[in-house]
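Example 3.2
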Amino acid sequence: MEASVGTNGAGGNITLRADSPTAEPFATIAVPITGKTTYVMPTAADQTVNELGYAKVEAAVATAPAGTHTVYVVFEAADLRIDSLQVTQTAVNIAKPMDGAALPAAKPGVAYDQTLALEASGGTAPYTWSVTGLPEGLSFDAATGKITGTVADGAVDSSPYTVTISATDANDETVSVSNTLAIGDMLGIGSPEGGAVPAAKVGTDYSVQLAAYGGTEPYTWTVTGLPEGLALDAGTQKISGVPAAGTDADSPYEVVIRVTDSANVSREMTASLTVSPSDPVDPGTEELAIVAPVAGSAIVSGNEGSAYDQLLTLTATGGMEPYVWSVSGLPTGLTFDPATLRITGTPASSGTFPLTITAKDAEERTATVAASLTIAPIYVPPYVPPVTTPVTETSQPDAEGKLKVTESMLTVGDTGATVTLPAGTKTALLPGGLLGKAESKSLELKADGLSLTLPAAVVKQLAAAIPADRLSDAQVQVSFKAVDAAAAAQAVGASTDATNVRLAGDVIEFTLTVVVGDANTAVTTFDAPITLTLKADGVANPKLGGIFYLAGNGQRQYVDSKYVDGAYVAQIQHFSKYAVLEVTKNFADVPDSHWAIDVIKELAAKQIVGGTSETTFEPGRTITRAEFTQLLAGALKLTDEGKQSFADVAAGAWYAKPIALAAEAGIVSGRGDGTFDPGGAITRQEMATMIVKAYRYLHGNAAASGVGASFADADRIAAWAAPYVAEASSLGLLSGRGEGRFAPRGVTTRAEAAQSVYNLLQK
């Protein structure tokens, strides 16, 4: 309704009333203060006239009575004026029910009684309601607004029905909406019941069957808000999977489950899903037993007075991991390191020593096995008269593969000299005088399928071993002979179902002897590393190959190697047997489809990571702070002596040495209360901190440049860890988890830890 109104006073209201000026108003018009126009009449008296100003205002008609009535215009204040009044009628509109809504389902043979919520506006009241399109057996009563009756049995065949609900006003203006009415049970969610889902556990299989009832099949399901590792299988209508490590940190989850039937009717429920941490490793009831070495085994022998370094292959089953190993009965001068599983030192006496090897599990249970170690006495060579058939200087090796190197064979550069030995050479004889002249340079010997580069420090070491007055009749013998097939097989060891070892080329035994007159002195350790290059014959996957030190009885030790132009290059500290091996480690619980299989295989081949048993890796198990520290210490080859400074790290524990080494290198710093918490699960922000510190250790403490990823949960990253998380992200050492999150307080799995160390070693 629009009115043109004005006032000579302070404004006010004009009301409209039906049949009586005292009846309740059905409309109120608010009159604003209007402006006036003043005119001066050109008369003798110059009279002033004010013209009243009018304003157009709108007012709503609240409850106009139906029919024909007398309308009274009532001025509720003085000096109000109304110039015109125009009433505009609005169209009829249905507010309830909404168009496209679903009516409660009806069931054949069961009485139906449903009151409709009917509400209209606009037009001219009153409204008359009607409903059409109902199934046989149902009818609508306009007086009560109810649909009642009993649906016939055959009505289900045409379900769902489109029902038209119409409102007609007093002027016969009609408007309609459409609703659906399904025949059958009302759609509902039957499983999970009561809006609750079972709790889940990190690392444990989880399954919840979804089920609906009523409505019109088939059903369509959607589920949102699930933690990482769980998903809806539309085929089986199950929520299933294994909650990923760290998902307990964001528990509980608000999971929304929605089902929609073929009539487009939907029902929805919201359930709270709690994810708890994985259970601690069950110690089980299996008796602790040592699998390797077997009882009565002989450890690789050594020599009295000579440096000894032997890695033991120690394997146990049963009990509760981790195991702590010890070896008793060693001769004076030798010690066993439980962190590296190596016997090292210089034996001070000879003989066969009975050893007791002990494994202790986390529950303090022990198992032992007897072994032995033979140390040969210091060898005193018998007198041998001078050789009567000296080696003839020639450019070809003799029948035994020996060749005397002359100055004419050297290619000399600014920093070193190179000798390319002819085919068939097995021993290079270096005259003492030649070494004396070249002691400030490196010397490279190139032979069939291999090369040796003696750095200047080693050349000087060898020259110093020869008295100055004996240089002319002394020589250094560098031997590199391939052992026979039987010896090679024994040195390499046999493959197993879990570990396939393939020899690529020959097993080469390297020796270095200083010969001065009748005295032969073997040189087994060097003042600086020697560069060894071995050709890789037919290696299928270079990432799984490398140079290995073969200590005997199948004991293999990987030497850090680089694959360059079909060969492996490594730095070695002593001479012995070496070979190129391709090692494929197969873990039963790491299938080919696992996201980290390539990384785990490569690190296992290089002896950087090991399984939790001969055949298992447990990629999804949470890694502890001690385990991750040991992994980093081994990958970085930390060797400096560390000091033990944590109250909860026992001196004899298997993790004591790697923790001490990592602390000395500045990679770990403990909890802040004097403890390290070795058995605690390492969080992702702790891992980021340690891996970045390890990167800085490798690269001279240089911080990385670049900007890391922006994580949605950055506000949950501790202030002390934030710069390390950013640097780890920018370096590509760590990445976030799903939905742009980093999950800083989430725990780390063994597979994730392996990937992070692999990323570190690629930088």
